[in-house]
Structure formats: structure tokens, C-alpha cells
């Protein structure tokens, strides 16, 4: 059995069995418009990124299309996609297929912050009203944005953002 020993600010990993983890003190929450984000995994080579997202009541995301699968687990609160009308509450799991297009919204009458963990494969293509791509969020661009938000808000960026893609 392997033992993991790590110091604060250092990546936690057991290379012999291919396990890595992200402790709260190593991957801080950063403030964004309408909430907070916490990047806990970012593999540019594989195009996979995982993040915690906290949304204030009445906030949400821009309309977007996924190029790969997305898995989401609702930790607290409730949210929905305006295009589908299904509400997701604490404990809900969602699987979004490649090509799905939607707009995440948190109802303004929510009584708490909504927190969701997303594992994203590929990119989110941010769309305008005519379905034209206006921005791309992927492991590389979100990792760079998260790093800058960490610096701007006085946090150390996670060590895994300094590793070269394998």
C-alpha cells in the first residue's frame, strides 16, 4: 500500500499507481462574475479539465456548445438549462453529450449558492445569438485564465498548471 505525503502547495501524487489529487489549499476558489471557480484538474494534452463552480442566485453562464462530454455533480443549490427546463438540485448528476448546446442559469429565487463539480472533455464554444463562436474555453485557455485570476487575487496558482503536457 502506498502512502501519500505532501506539503502545502505541492502537487499530491502517487506516480506508481497514477493517482493525483488537489487539496483545497492548493487549488483556491477565485472570484468571477456571478460566483467563484476552482480548477482542480487541467490536462491540456488530453483536453480534460475539472472545476468547481459556485453560482450566486440569478447568475449563470453564456450559451455554449460542447465539443466533448461533460459530467456534472450538483453539490448544493439548484440550476437548470434554459433550453430544457429541467431543474438539477443537490445530489443530481448530469451527463452532457458532445454537441449539446445550452445556457446554465441559477434561479434568482435560490436561497443559497449553487455549487457544481464539472469534468469537461474538450472545449466549450461560447456562442452569440446567431450561433457564431465568439470565444473558446478549453483546458489550455481556462488554465491560463485561472492562473491569472489566482495571481490577481493574491493566491498561488496550482503546481499542476506549471507541468508541461505529456
Structural features, described:
The protein is globular. It has one domain: Jelly Rolls. It is mainly beta. The N terminus is likely disordered. A six-stranded antiparallel β-sheet has the order 3-4-5-13-7-10, with helices on one face. Strands 11-6-14-15 form a four-stranded antiparallel β-sheet. It contains one helix and 15 strands, in the order βββββββββββββββα.
DSSP helical segment count: 1
Estimate the global geometry from the Cα principal axes. Answer: globular
Radius of gyration, Cα only, in angstroms?
16 Å
Number of domains: 1
Task: State the strand order across the main sheet.
Answer: 3-4-5-13-7-10
What is the CATH architecture annotation? Answer: Sandwich
State the CATH class. Answer: Mainly Beta
Beta content comes to 35-45%
CATH superfamily: Jelly Rolls
Derived from helix and strand composition plus strand pairing, the structural class reads mainly beta
* Cα end-to-end separation: 26 Å
> What is the share of helical residues?
under 10%
Major sheet = 6 strands, antiparallel
Low-confidence stretches: 1-15
Mean pLDDT: 88
The total beta strand count reads: 15
Q: In a few lines, what is going on in this structure?
A:
This protein has 166 residues and is mainly β. The protein has one helix spanning 139-152; strands at 12-14, 19-21, 30-32, 35-43, 48-55, 64-66, 70-76, 78-81, 87-89, 93-96, 101-102, 104-105, 114-121, 124-127, 133-137.
Amino acid at each position: 500500500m502506498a502512502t501519500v505525503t505532501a506539503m502545502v502547495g505541492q502537487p499530491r501524487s502517487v506516480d506508481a499507481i497514477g493517482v493525483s489529487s488537489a487539496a483545497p489549499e492548493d487549488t483556491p476558489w477565485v472570484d468571477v462574475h456571478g460566483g467563484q471557480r476552482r480548477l482542480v484538474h487541467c490536462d491540456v494534452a488530453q483536453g480534460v479539465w475539472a472545476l468547481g463552480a459556485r453560482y450566486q442566485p440569478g447568475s449563470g453562464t453564456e450559451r455554449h456548445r460542447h465539443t466533448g462530454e461533460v459530467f456534472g455533480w450538483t453539490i448544493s443549490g439548484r440550476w437548470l438549462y434554459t433550453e430544457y427546463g429541467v431543474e438539477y438540485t443537490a445530489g443530481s448528476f448530469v451527463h452532457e453529450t458532445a454537441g449539446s448546446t445550452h445556457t446554465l442559469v441559477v434561479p434568482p429565487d435560490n436561497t443559497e449558492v449553487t455549487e457544481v463539480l464539472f469534468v469537461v472533455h474538450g472545449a466549450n464554444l461560447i456562442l452569440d445569438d446567431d450561433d457564431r463562436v465568439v470565444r473558446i474555453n478549453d483546458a489550455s485557455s481556462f488554465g491560463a485564465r485561472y492562473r491569472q485570476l489566482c495571481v490577481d487575487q493574491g493566491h498561488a496558482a496550482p503546481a499542476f498548471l506549471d507541468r508541461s503536457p505529456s
